[in-house]
Specification:
Oligomer: single chain
Radius of gyration: 32 Å
Shape: elongated
Number of strands: 17
Distance between the termini: 117 Å
Helix content: 10-25%
Structural class: alpha+beta
CATH topology of the largest domain: Cathepsin B, Chain A
Largest sheet: 7 strands, antiparallel
CATH class of the largest domain: Alpha Beta
Number of helices: 8
Number of domains: 2
Strand content: 25-35%
CATH architecture of the largest domain: Alpha-Beta Complex
Order of helices and strands: HEEEEEEEEEEHEHHHEHEEEEHEH
């Protein structure tokens, strides 16, 4: 072959090779991504349910109810190509970095271009209602000593002294819980003691429970909130309910009207009140007592249930409210049953217990 033809073919080969190298180089040097999204997120892969809301940049994770703590959990996730993920400035590694999911977490996703960023709110829970109630994320333990029939009373329905009828209303609720056949009303209770109106006293509660043969006892609470919380939980654990007489001004007001936690009405110092405790929930290590508070006066939640029905109060608030007012509790068992041995051992002689009243 002539030398000129060989050189021409060699030049063509080199030119094609150069073009090929240039093409590969452009392909390999893709421009940085502008996306800052989550593609997948899970705390217990294959066991939880995750909803990724790309419109509101929110991720909701429902873990199994057997997971009773959200602390020290590692998320498994994938984000946009080339993106990095951080929480409070700490770089996140999928399946490795641990966080406390007992609160809403803000995940920052930074795109590959290092300019585009999105803040994602991640919310995890092990149940379907504690967050909406305002209690928190992870239910650790709880119980509710409820009945299959309605036994809640709004004291606004209790007659001309309704404003101060929390005592007659609370004791009537307790008796209805204890005795499913009890048909009297709070108005009947008011017609039995302090008939001229005014405050009801703890001695009236004790007498009316006795009049209706309801097994009950008065027990002492503790000067400390933790031990008071334990005493109250223990009585509820034994399928009993409780009536407290306390100064509701020590109970914090609700931070959000839609929540079922904390006080839903204004008070002033010395605002004595009777309420019924019927259960408790321990959520994110915080203890809440489930109450029937009779002071609804027609106020309702968004689902049209009365605000005093299944209201939750913090244990430390109840302890603080009882201590200066009446640091005791009525423990009530179901009619025909005996009080738990602990309540019997703790029972005080009513004649030696100071008397308190509602406002």
């Amino acid at each position: 072959m002539p030398l000129r033809d060989i050189c021409s073919k060699w030049s063509l080969f080199v030119w094609i090779a150069v073009l090929s190298l240039g093409s590969c180089s452009k392909k390999d040097q893709a421009s940085p991504s502008h996306a800052a999204d989550f593609q997948q997120f899970s705390l217990f892969p294959g066991q939880d349910k995750t909803v990724i809301d790309a419109v509101n940049n929110q991720i909701n994770v429902r873990v199994p109810d057997t997971i009773v703590s959200g602390n020290q959990l590692a998320a498994n996730f994938s984000a946009s190509p080339q993106a990095s993920v951080s929480v409070q400035g700490v770089a996140q590694q999928t399946g490795i970095t641990r966080n406390n999911f007992e609160e809403d977490l803000s995940y920052i996703v930074t795109a590959g271009d290092q300019q585009s960023k999105k803040t994602w709110t991640v919310r995890a829970t092990n149940n379907d209602n504690s967050i909406s109630l305002g209690l928190g994320h992870f239910l650790n333990h709880g119980l509710s000593e409820d009945r299959v029939y309605n036994w809640y009373i709004d004291q606004s329905t209790s007659g001309p002294y309704a404003l101060v009828n929390c005592g007659p209303s609370s004791v009537t609720m307790a008796i209805k819980w204890s005795d499913s056949g009890f048909s009297k009303t709070a108005l009947d209770a008011r017609g039995t003691y302090e008939t001229g109106g005014g405050w009801w006293f703890t001695s009236d509660i004790d007498a009316y429970l006795g009049d209706n043969n309801i097994p009950h006892a008065i027990i002492s609470l503790s000067p400390g909130p933790d031990s008071t919380g334990i005493i109250l939980m223990n009585q509820l654990d034994h399928q009993q309910i409780i009536i407290l007489c306390l100064d509701m001004n020590y109970v914090r007001p609700a931070s959000q009207a839609a929540m079922r936690v904390d006080k839903f009405y204004p008070t002033s110092p010395g605002w004595g009140h009777f309420i019924v405790l019927k259960g408790y929930k321990k959520v994110d290590e915080e203890l809440f007592f489930e109450a029937y508070d009779p002071y609804s006066f027609g106020q309702v939640n968004t689902d049209q249930t009365l605000k005093g029905l299944n209201r939750f109060y913090r244990y430390e608030d109840l302890a603080a409210a009882c201590l200066p007012w009446w640091n005791f509790a009525f423990v009530i068992a179901k009619k025909g049953q005996l009080l738990d041995l602990d309540a019997i051992h703790r029972a005080l002689d009513p004649a030696h217990v100071p008397v308190a009243h509602n406002f």
